[in-house]
Design a protein that fits this description.
The chain is built from three helices and nine strands, in the order αβββββββαββα. The chain is an alpha+beta fold.
Length: 302
Amino acid sequence: MAEPVICPRCSYERQPYDITTPDWQCPKCKRGYPKDLSHRDGQPKGLERPVSSKYEAFQWYLWVAIGVLACLWLLGCWQRGKVSASSMLPALQQEPQQTPTQEKPFQFSYRKRTYDVKPVANYTLWGYVVSHNDISSFSDIYHTKDSVDTKDLCVIWGPNVKDNQFHKVSFHSGSWTCYFRYPGGVSFSKYHLSNNHLLTDNAAVRRMIAKVRVGDQVKFEGMLVNYKDSRRKYRWRKSSTTRKDTGNTACEVVFVRNLEILKRGTPFWYFLASASFWLLVLAGLGKFAAFALESKFPPDEE
């Protein structure tokens, strides 16, 4: 005959009908049996089960939360910036407008440095942002917080946004360059894509450029320019003046007077990715805190 199992905490004797409660847990007080149930009053030895931690349920919920948040974060990252061609504004079908300029060379200052600017042409572009660089990332060794260059915007327009073929094109921005590749059979015009180095002397415009994300539909106005740091005599960064060139000299350098975000791209997915990421960080901190508390205040093993 099996020895009775009696909980040393509530004195409840386990019954044959307590089959819905795990063998290691008291059916009445719901606490785990100690490793050794040889009670000081002579009660028999029970099951060899570690005591249930008071943080066990909390830790379990945290694991579930971490798994769910990780899935939501991955989903948000996958979907953000993916805009259907049917959502493109009619303005993005037109070609960039480039006209002669009468502007004279000028200088402007940024972060205690002076820059020389030579206007080349007036310029207006409507485009869908497919990629941009990140001048604050560790991988970008060319830019610092004092760099006059703002975010480079790689955009497409015209026939490239008439259908969803552009979703099959892979875009990636380096420190100064926009790269793209696509499989055979995809209809894509490399002459309706441009990588734009953006400059401005207007703090409000600079803040607006910083807000642009992949998937946004934008319009910016200003001038195509050549520019350099005034301390350097010959090192001009020159702008392309045609959309038909390719390679390292094909980027437009635009001195931006005004930039508008005509339509935000997938704001829900951006919000989901951002919110789930920070909640994932909090859940991870909570997991670490629960582990630390359990180590500092171990469960009572009577």
